[in-house]
Amino acid sequence: NTTKKTYGTRVTGATLWDVPVYFRIEDRVGNVKYYTSYSVRVNPDGDRPIAQISYPTYNAASATGIQTLAGAVRISGEASDEVNEVTKVHIQVQKSKTNENSTTETDWDDVPGYSDVVVTGTYKWSYTLPTSDTEFQPSNGTKACLRFRVWAEDSSVPVKTGDKSAWVVIKTDK
Fold first, then answer.
1. Which segment of 7-21, 40-54, 102-116, 126-140 scores lowest on mean pLDDT?
2. What angle (nearest 5°) sits at the alpha carbon of residue 115, between those of residues 151 and 99?
3. pLDDT at 4
4. CA 169 – CA 112 distance, rounded (Å)
């Protein structure tokens, strides 16, 4: 599965491109042969850091895929960079206005003080979400629905910031 562009073909579902490479070969007597069946796979974002969440993750045993966790929630993951050193990993936490998971962005609010927090660690990182704080509690006494995502920075000059990870959604129970 590919999408044709002017100078290459984008690999579907990835930020990779297959760029054609052509060779013109001429021998001493003037015979010319063209080779056009070669390509180079290029990752234009290969020098940007990547951060991902390894816990908690999607819960296949649940009908909604959402885990319900109690107490302080420890979030952990990894970050990497092909070229430079990972210097920071950030986390953003949002709370559902309806206490339910939603794909509508307007149904979510940043939790004050948790929209851009630098976590502990870089290549292996962790963060403990203090779910007992009042900011995380639902107003109606049910379980709160939270989501979070991460991104990393590297040591290049200027600093390169990776894409934000996919959201992970959880419910919290006191």
1. 126-140
2. 110
3. 55
4. 18
DSSP string, the chain: -EEE-SS-EEETTSS-EEEEEEEEEE-TT--EEEEEEEEEEE-TTTTS-EEEEEES---TTSSSS-EEEESSEEEEEEEE-SSS-EEEEEEEEEEESSSS--S-GGGEEEPTT-SSEEPEESSEEEEEE-TTSGGGS-TTSS-EEEEEEEEEEESSSSPPBPPPPPPEEEEEE-
Q: Given the structure tokens 């649940």, which residue do they identify?
A: 62
Residue with tokens 């960079």: 81
- pLDDT tier, 139 (very low <50, low <70, confident <90, very high otherwise): low
Range 137-149 average pLDDT: 77
**Is this structure's pTM higher than 0.85?**
no
Q: Within a 10 A sphere around the Cβ of 49, how many other Cβ atoms? A: 28
pLDDT at residue 3 tops 60:
no
3-state secondary structure of 27: coil
The residue assigned the tokens 């963060």 is 127
Between CA 15 and CA 5 the distance in angstroms is 13
